[in-house]
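Propose amino acids for all 280 sites.
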């Protein structure tokens, strides 16, 4: 009821603003039945038109032509020519190009996606079927959401947040908790660390657009961290799937253009083992 009352009060404020903007003429028009007659429900809130009509009748409005209701105040001047004066329009010769059809718009240049530069993204045997791959991608998306938002909230709120952010994967909370609370990963989840950072740069003559999961910036270095939820974790950077290495190289190249005076580093954070693996 309180919400409905607030909505009705706001509606009346808007009506007041609309009515008081008129300087000389106020014309109100509507279509359909009166609110009191609509669907036979007399308890419905009156429409603006109904309110204005009732108010006009109360102050003495009289029937006008065409079924209108008219109320006038004061005397209008008579014998004054109010027809618009047409200003002379100079003849202007259009340039030749104005008569030509516009050329066909060219296709927008394709953007490079760091996550789609080719190469495997998982070690052999991790995902066998397309269904397995889709499930792994969905799991990774949910885990990314937890790692993005949980560090900003008190730990006591994490269970309810996990139910909202990843309702289909209740088991992910413990994995996210283990990663966020790992002492050796404190720098990654520090309050001053940037998260989900949009980045763009030109690489080999083509525009690259991506987003870095975590970006740590100091006066001396820049570290880009990407979360990976692979179930089979490589033992070394050399064993890391080529598709992931290409992604991190693209981030590194973009960051070198943005921070040419700093050391650029990239790392993969394997969530299954809570391991931060430097790859560049």
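Proposal:
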């Amino acid at each position: 009821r309180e919400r409905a009352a607030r909505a009705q009060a706001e509606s009346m404020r808007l009506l007041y603003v609309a009515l008081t903007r008129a300087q000389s003429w106020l014309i109100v028009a509507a279509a359909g039945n009166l609110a009191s007659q609509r669907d036979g429900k007399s308890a419905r809130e009156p429409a603006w038109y109904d309110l204005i009509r009732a108010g006009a009748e109360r102050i003495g409005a009289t029937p006008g032509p065409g079924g209108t209701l008219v109320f006038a105040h004061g005397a209008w001047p008579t014998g004054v020519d109010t027809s618009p004066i047409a200003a002379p329009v100079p003849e202007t010769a259009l340039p030749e190009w104005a008569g030509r059809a516009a050329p066909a718009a060219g296709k927008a240049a394709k953007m490079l996606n760091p996550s789609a530069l080719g190469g495997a993204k998982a070690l052999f045997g991790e995902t066998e079927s397309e269904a397995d791959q889709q499930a792994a991608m969905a799991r990774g998306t949910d885990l990314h959401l937890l790692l993005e938002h949980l560090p900003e909230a008190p730990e006591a709120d994490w269970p309810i947040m996990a139910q909202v952010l990843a309702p289909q994967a209740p088991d992910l909370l413990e994995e996210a908790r283990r990663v966020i609370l790992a002492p050796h990963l404190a720098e990654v989840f520090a309050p001053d660390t940037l998260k989900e950072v949009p980045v763009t740069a030109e690489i080999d003559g083509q525009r690259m657009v991506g987003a870095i999961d975590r970006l740590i910036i100091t006066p001396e270095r820049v570290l880009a961290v990407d979360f990976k939820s692979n179930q089979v974790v490589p033992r070394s950077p050399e064993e890391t799937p080529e598709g992931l290495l290409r992604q991190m190289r693209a981030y590194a190249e973009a960051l070198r253009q943005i921070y040419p005076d700093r050391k650029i580093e990239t790392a993969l954070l394997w969530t299954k083992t809570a391991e931060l693996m430097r790859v560049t």
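The mean pLDDT is 87. The beta strands are 62-63, 69-70, 194-203, 206-217, 221-228, 263-270, 275-278.
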